[in-house]
Design goal:
alpha+beta; Immunoglobulin-like; C8orf32 fold; Jelly Rolls; 3 domains; eight-stranded mixed beta sheet
């Protein structure tokens, strides 16, 4: 592939590319009657709209002395229901700074409606196109297609011109509504090199890569540039339907991702955007502001109470330092990694973003002789970081990795009520990069603590009122959530919310106390004295649900799910229910015994009912041992939960003698 390497003076000459425009297999504004008559999408009858056809063409152009990347878009969408009207409002984000900016041209849009057997189009007025400043670096152009009804077909096209070559990031084949055809065509001269990767679990229907000769040249030069001529397309793409236990959907949306790797400038300069981790390690240590913050170990040592440093047990020393930093700071709920990071200023104000707090923790642990490094990660809603090469913009969060007695601990002191080594749920996103100044950086998995809840309930009838005691002990994320609710809401409101839970069967809390509310390293224990409702039938039958408080709906309802189920952390639920049968009643039925398991011990369930004289005991244990289930295991997991929900609806039935 030929690259243009010329002097900067030649930029003033005319730059030309073959005048290839966006080609469509039909004429804009010409909608066939079969599309206007379409009542529903046969491959997804529930869809409120469907993309009939969409395409983009990206290429380099010359404009006003600059080389720009120009992308022309075309979309044609059928609207079936009112819920699909949102697809007729188009928002175009544009990036700008003080020197150069992106802009949009050639906006054309119209709505087609079938009237008296003919197409009656309505054109978008230019007066209905609005420009809004969003921030110092972003503005948006927005318009809504006119006269949209159920049954309308809308089509629109526009072109974005951008001086930012890194803003060409690819194309999404999948969205919130199904698509019949979606295509990206790009013509990129050899001066601009992009890394490309296919994201998601669907395959391309069209994957054409060829070299187009003489596609981009400057008049006066003998050797025009070759272009990489790419065509990627997918057909019959289902809508991306979000369901429970999902990280960022951009990890799994079917799309082609472009990342600018390097540019050969016309004045002979060459800039690499994709670097090696060795390059990043060096920059991180000597150039990035965050690196200099991690060198303030002596300063941090002077801030620590002497008794923290004098603790002889290494793990206790680390735990005490963690809680000291945790209590000193209040998190301002901001992340930031490479900007707005000032550890000393944050320490003095006792308020900081997550990175500042964790830099303080990292420095404090190193000051105490505990080997610690900062670990760059991407939060669950931010997507997975690129694994094959450094893309620092993929990271938006930082935690601490410490080595204590041959064991690795991952720490985050931004959570006020989290015990030592419990990462925030937002941070549980597969893997991150540990920035080791003494050695090379390396990838490290983000394994999570197991969450365990144990519930013991003992009930009996007292003058026709079902009452008794309930003890709930919690660890990890459940304990963190409960502590946070009690401290933020107050105990009284916490009790009211507990009683008002729709799955609690009219439970009333007669008295309540807890243990270890502020002792974060110990089990959180709650004791309830309770009474609750039951169902009566003709005064000769009692129906009691022993699994009150358990979920009543299966979180997995899709016919197929083409992205993983990600629980974030392994979890275990232990449950014991003991009930004293009142005199004058016999036991008609109890919940059935059940044993379920998924392959390789990924999840298992055991529930056993026993009867001893007039006492019913139900022992139940549910364990989800694997945090991520790939799409091929979805149906097994869905069936597992179906059986679990059926068990939760099983009841004790007593009849009068």
């Amino acid at each position: 592939m030929k690259k243009i390497i010329i002097s900067f003076a030649l930029l003033m000459l005319t730059v030309t590319s073959h005048a290839q425009e966006l080609e469509l297999p039909f004429k804009f504004g010409n909608i066939p009657l079969n599309e206007l008559n379409l009542k529903y999408y046969e491959k997804d009858a529930s869809a409120n709209a469907v993309v009939l056809y969409e395409k983009a063409l990206a290429k380099m152009i010359y404009s006003s002395g600059n080389i720009l990347i120009q992308t022309t878009y075309y979309h044609k969408i059928k609207i079936f229901k009112k819920d699909g009207y949102s697809n007729a409002t188009i928002t175009i984000p544009l990036y700008n700074n003080l020197k150069v900016h992106e802009w949009v041209v050639k906006i054309k849009a119209l709505t087609h409606n079938l009237e008296n057997g003919h197409d009656n189009p309505t054109y978008l007025s230019k007066k209905k196109i609005y420009k809004t400043k969003i921030s110092d670096t972003y503005k948006e152009v927005k318009f809504t297609l006119p006269n949209v009804k159920e049954g309308s077909v809308i089509e629109y096209t526009y072109t974005i011109k951008s001086p930012y070559f890194s803003r060409f990031t690819g194309w999404e084949f999948q969205g919130n509504i199904p698509k019949i055809y979606s295509e990206l065509h790009s013509l990129i001269p050899g001066n601009w090199v992009y890394n490309k990767k296919l994201v998601g679990f669907r395959k391309l229907d069209i994957n054409k890569i060829k070299i187009k000769k003489k596609c981009f040249f400057i008049i006066g030069l003998e050797a025009p540039a070759e272009c990489e001529d790419l065509t990627f397309a997918m057909k019959d793409v289902p809508a991306f339907k979000e369901e429970a236990y999902l990280t960022s959907k951009k990890n799994y949306l079917s799309r082609i991702a472009f990342e600018l790797s390097e540019v050969f400038y016309f004045d002979g300069r060459h800039k690499k955007y994709t670097k090696t981790w060795k390059d990043v390690d060096k920059q991180f240590k000597y150039e990035y502001k965050i690196g200099s913050q991690l060198k303030k170990i002596d300063y941090t040592r002077s801030l620590l109470p002497r008794e923290l440093l004098n603790e002889t047990d290494k793990l206790k020393r680390a735990v005490n330092i963690y809680h000291f930093i945790q209590n000193h700071f209040s998190w301002n709920e901001e992340y930031h990694i490479f900007r707005k990071v000032n550890f000393k200023k944050a320490y003095k104000s006792k308020t900081g973003n997550a990175t500042e707090i964790n830099i303080a923790l990292c420095n404090a642990l190193n000051a105490a002789g505990i080997k610690s490094n900062l670990m760059l990660i991407s939060t669950r809603n931010n997507g997975l970081p690129t694994f094959v090469h450094p893309v620092l913009s993929d990271f938006n969060y930082a935690i601490v990795v410490s080595h204590i007695d041959k064991k690795i601990y991952k720490l985050d002191a931004s959570q006020k009520l989290a015990p030592f080594s419990l990462l925030p749920y937002r941070a549980l996103n597969s893997y991150g990069r540990v920035m080791d100044f003494e050695n090379e950086s390396y990838w490290e998995n983000l394994d999570a603590n197991r969450n365990i809840t144990t519930t013991s309930i003992n009930l009996h009838f007292n003058e026709d009122v079902l009452e008794g005691m309930m003890r709930v002990s919690s660890t990890a994320y459940t304990a963190l959530k409960k502590r946070d609710e009690i401290i933020s809401k107050g105990e009284l409101n916490y009790r009211k919310d507990f009683e008002n839970d729709s799955e609690m069967n009219d439970l009333i809390i007669e008295s309540y106390r807890n243990k270890n509310l502020e002792n974060l390293e110990k089990l959180f224990i709650e004791d309830f004295k309770i009474s609750l409702g039951n169902e009566l039938s003709d005064d000769d039958m009692l129906i009691i649900n022993p699994f009150f408080g358990s979920q009543t709906k299966n979180p997995f309802t899709l016919e197929d799910r083409d992205y993983p189920v990600d629980f974030g952390y392994p979890r275990t639920k232990n449950y014991r229910f003991i009930f004293d049968v009142p005199e004058g009643y016999i036991i008609s039925s109890v919940p059935k015994n059940i044993t379920l398991s998924l392959p390789y011990n990924a999840a298992n369930l055991v529930s056993k009912s026993t009867i001893n004289n007039q006492k019913i005991t139900i022992d139940f244990k549910l364990s989800i041992n694997k945090t991520s289930f790939p799409p091929k295991e979805y149906n097994e997991l869905k069936d597992f939960y179906k059986n679990l929900i059926n068990l939760y609806s099983d009841v004790i039935i007593l009849k009068k003698k």
